Amino acid sequence: MMQRTRFPYFVLFMLLSAFPVALYAQTAVVKGTVMRDNGKPAELVNVQVVGTKWGTSTDAKGSFYLKVYPGKIHLALSYIGYLRVDTSFSLQPGQTADLHFKLKKLTTNLPGFEVRDEQLRTENIVRLNPRDATMAPSVSGGVESLIKTLPGVSSNNELSSQYSVRGGNYDENLVFVNGMEIYRPFLVNTGQQEGLSIINPSLVSGILFSAGGFGAQYGDKMSSVLDIRYRKPEAFSAGVSLSFLGAGFHVEGVDKSKRFTYLVGARYKTNRYLLGSLETKGNYQPDFSDFQGLFTYKLNEKWDISLFTYFSLNRYKVVPTDRKTDFGTVQQTLRFTVY
Length: 339
Prior knowledge:
The strands form five sheets. Strands 8-9-14-15-12-13 form a six-stranded mixed beta sheet, with no helix packed on it. It has a six-stranded antiparallel beta sheet with strand order 16-17-18-19-20-21, with no helix packed on it. It has two domains: 24-102, Sandwich (Immunoglobulin-like), CATH 2.60.40; 119-338, TonB-dependent receptor, plug domain (Ferric Hydroxamate Uptake Protein, Chain A, domain 1), CATH 2.170.130. 12% of the residues lie in helices and 44% in strands. It is mainly beta. The chain is elongated and about 140 Å long. Mean pLDDT is 80; it is low at 18-24. The protein has four helices and 21 strands. A hairpin with a 2-residue loop joins strand 12 (173-177) and strand 13.
């Protein structure tokens, strides 16, 4: 009776002993090493079987060991700062794959950007956009009309390009064009007799203005400094502007050797339509025109020669016919007429 009882236990013991062998035969092994691009072991690299929960990480020697199901394996290795590595292969039950990987550093190309400063921090100088000078609505036009909108700058005549800074005189303002001091050619008393400003906004690439506290390189004027930089042409281009008060044309270019550049501009202005609204009636014939040219030849990397030319023709003719002046009070208005 005792012998019959022990036989079933013996069979059950033999079956349980064979089960781990059968289970082991249904798995495969993936092992290997991971190195950096400098040849040193890569520690803590994430090793993952894609599509499953199986994964591990490398040790201090860059080694890893992972049991997987046999069949097609998709292995992925990832590490911060390095490119991800993907590989696919097939394993049979009980087979071992010994793999070796070398990581490559991840480089990211950032999009290009441009840094601009709107104000120089070392000096009390403001940088203005030259495009605003050409687009700003004004009677006189030019860079001066943009200057008049800044704090501390005033002008008593919209027809004139003259301006006063912090109560100073009109001749206390410095003007530089490409580092050369320009003495203002128009110092007339009435704005309607003034023609074009010497600064052609269509040729300008940079505008710096200071209402005080500027550097010693600009001299010892008391009111302000206006520093104008003309463009350096890099390719051929031209432009035309038209309005009821005049017209403008400019052209620029560079030769095939990239050593000689030219920048030329011409303008014409007449404000006869505005002068017809003055108290003094008459036949107004104001005609103003100018021509500017900047020619540069590059001798070498350190030296170049520049020639700046300026020609101006200003005519202001008026034949007065009569003048009407209204004065008095609200209750009694008087008019004085001169024929």
